[in-house]
Design a protein that fits this description.
With about 230 residues, the chain is of the alpha/beta class. It is about 35% helix and about 15% strand. The strands form two sheets. The protein has a four-stranded parallel β-sheet with strand order 1-6-5-2, sandwiched between helices. It starts with a helix and ends with a strand.
Length: about 230
Amino acid sequence: MINYLINLFFPKVCDGCRALLLQNETVFCTSCRHEMPLTQYHLDSKNEAIKKFYGKIDIQFASAFLYFNKKGMVQELIHNLKYKGHQEIGTVLGNWYAEDLKELQFEIPFDIVIPVPLHKKKFKERGYNQVTTFGKAIASGFQIPFNETILFRKVYSKTQSKKNLLGRSENIDNIFDSVLTEENQNKHFLLVDDVLTTGATLEACSRALLKIPGTKISIVCIAMAHS
């Protein structure tokens, strides 16, 4: 009865198109689910995501689940996840993509899932890291740990979205660092983020993690912006 009243006065809507959700629908409607712009990058070892890091950083694998277009459905999903506290979006997308990734049966399995970290000040302002639920869902799918303490952000900075590539590269190299303990050595880290654009942030995170002896890195993002 309580759930009925809640749904009556505060009906659940699709995070993609804002249509009312049916009883058996969660986060997004069936129509939006079928229209998700899937990249299928995980099936291509030379996909556009991994090409972002050619000649810059040594990674084992890179992929993104969805295409990101301005004013598109995926932008709406990411906006709701990042700024409106709809963290269940990350869980649903992470569970979905974990099943796709597991089908590949990687020769070198991931050991630990690590999110691109927020600075403590930014975390306090927002209240959560927008990639946590996505990363935890991926980790759960692979039955491996999710760790938010190995990689950390040293410097608080404003959003990178309005800076050009050169400006980002100049400012981001020394922002991240990692915890250099023996326990963290010889691990294959799966680094997760929300949207892959230039790759500068993920490159900087990877360089910080590669300070740990024996590190291997793979990267998975919720979405990737078209070049």
